[in-house]
Write a structure and sequence with these properties.
Blueprint: H1 6-11, H2 23-28, H3 37-48, H4 58-69, E1 78-82, H5 112-133, H6 146-150, H7 156-167, H8 187-192, H9 196-213, E2 217-218, E3 221-222, E4 231-232, E5 236-237, E6 249-256, H10 259-262, E7 276-283, E8 288-291, E9 293-294, H11 298-314, E10 328-329, H12 332-389, H13 393-402, H14 406-414, H15 421-432, H16 436-442, H17 451-465
Antiparallel strand pairs: 1-8, 1-10, 2-3, 4-9, 5-8, 6-7
Length: 471
């Protein structure tokens, strides 16, 4: 059934929600899980084109936050370019049944918990390669992904200790044996050797944590759970090179050929059933994601980043990795390309900001000039009325001088010796009264020889003769 009420549907333009322009809301809160086949495909393709145009770009803001607020350098960040489609959130619940995970702006992202999980998987794989597959021999083959993770450590116990310190633990990590479904209770037991090897290693590792970190031990295992020292942030794409609207997500399909058989309606899986295509959204290959790991413990952060690097390129992220989905290129070449594109985009953004500031300053000057001219027209209109009402020659001359702009009055002062006495007297009255601020800006110009110095001295001499001395 639809996930929005009738009133909500009406407010958004009807059953197809034409007024809903948010890709995030379409996928998260207004999905249509009842849709099948072509209608479902159409729903996704329409939602793909809803990616908003925002300025500044949300992905630019995310990278700026990592580098400015968290003080991370480009060298501290891990860049991975998708080599295949990425399937996210395929197991979402009823209210989030669109099968994709996007942020509030509609851009795909990998949650920090997911990033932590895939990094931990690679770390445990390295531990197993050392302890179980290698029978205690440290891997040194450069073609083996575990070699990079194991390189800084002298013993497998030391690696296990840092893995626990980095990723944390719950009481489940310290259990042994199998569940009723024959699954190991602890993935550490899988990594260190099932049975007696794990029980012995568990005691040694718990003691190391007690000695080095002050972890309280009870009955041979840590008493409290621990979240880990490394902080894994959500992974988002970088804006540089991001596909145009509608090209960042792609439709994929899985086809069920034996629906009745799997539903228990047929005893045998015969080739007589109609295939049923199930469409789902994926993130398009070629998009580069930025991964960030922070923390105060350098050893833990180093292990976390190395494990994440191996995990992305060896195991992949998201769903259906065994079928080839979610694989990243994290090579030095991919990192170099990503960093270069980021630097180029930075320069582009700097130019854009400078251009916008220049345009804003020009618009502000134009607006100020419009306001000045309007004020000048209003002032002249008022003075014209006052001049008509003036009854004495002196009052009329004062009004005429008051109607002059600052630039016009400066020109009069520069040509002081050519003015009539009545005009000079009116200007003096203005400079001593309403135009005194203008005189304060003119007088410093008399410090240098030239036309202004001569004019200022002449004005002061005239003022002194009229017993109206100017400073």
């Amino acid at each position: 059934m639809p996930t929005c009420l009738a009133s909500t549907s009406e407010a958004l333009g009807g059953s197809s929600l034409p007024a809903l322009k948010s890709r995030s809301l379409r996928f998260a809160r207004f999905s249509e899980p009842q849709l099948k086949e072509e209608p479902r495909k159409k729903y996704f393709t329409e939602a793909f084109g809803l990616l908003p145009a925002t300025d500044p770009h949300p992905l630019d803001r995310w990278l700026a936050w990592l580098m400015n607020d968290l003080a991370l350098k480009l060298a501290d960040l891990l860049f991975g370019t998708l080599q295949s489609r990425l399937a996210l959130h395929l197991s979402g619940g009823t209210m989030e049944n669109a099968g994709i995970l996007v942020d509030r702006y509609g851009y795909p992202y990998i949650p920090g918990s997911g990033v932590k999980g895939i990094a931990r998987r690679a770390a445990l794989y390295a531990l197993r390669t050392w302890s179980v597959d290698g029978a205690g021999q440290k891997p040194t083959d450069l073609g083996e992904p575990a070699t990079t993770i194991c390189a800084p450590f002298d013993t497998a116990d030391a690696l296990a200790e840092v893995i626990l310190r980095t990723f944390g633990w719950t009481d489940g990590e310290w259990k042994d044996g199998r569940t009723s479904k024959s699954m190991l209770r602890s993935d550490l037991e899988w990594a260190l050797g099932e049975g007696e090897p794990w029980i012995e290693a568990r005691a040694r590792i718990a003691m190391r944590l007690a000695q080095h970190d002050g972890v309280r031990i009870e009955k041979g295992i840590p008493k409290e759970n621990f979240a880990g020292l490394a902080r894994f942030l959500e992974a988002k794409p970088i804006a540089a090179g991001y596909p145009e609207r509608g090209k960042d997500l792609e439709i994929d399909v899985v086809t069920c050929h034996h629906g009745d058989y799997y539903a228990g309606r047929l005893p045998l899986a015969l080739d007589t059933e109609d295939p049923v295509p199930v469409y789902f959204p994926t993130v398009a290959p070629g998009i580069t994601f930025v991964f960030a790991v922070t923390g105060t413990d350098a050893e833990s952060v180093t292990l976390a980043r190395a494990s994440l690097d191996i995990a992305l390129s060896t195991f992949g992220a998201g769903a259906k990795t065994a079928a080839g989905y979610g694989w990243f290129d994290t090579s030095d070449a991919a990192r170099s390309v990503a960093q270069q594109s980021i630097n180029e985009r930075r320069q582009e953004l700097i130019l854009q900001v400078a251009k916008r500031r220049k345009a804003a300053a020009l618009a502000a000057r134009e607006q100020a000039e419009i306001q000045r001219l309007a004020a000048e027209r209003e002032r002249r209109a008022v003075l014209k009325v006052a001049e008509a009402a003036a009854t004495t020659p002196q009052a009329k001359e004062d009004i005429r001088i008051a109607a002059l702009s600052d630039q016009q009055l400066e020109t009069k002062i520069q040509n002081w010796l050519k003015l009539e006495v009545t005009e000079k007297t009116a200007i003096l009255r203005a400079l001593l009264g309403p135009r005194s601020a203008l005189w304060a800006t003119i007088t410093p110009r008399g410090d240098k020889k030239g036309q202004w110095r001569n004019a200022i001295e002449a004005v002061r001499a005239e003022a002194k003769r009229n017993k109206q001395p100017l400073l």
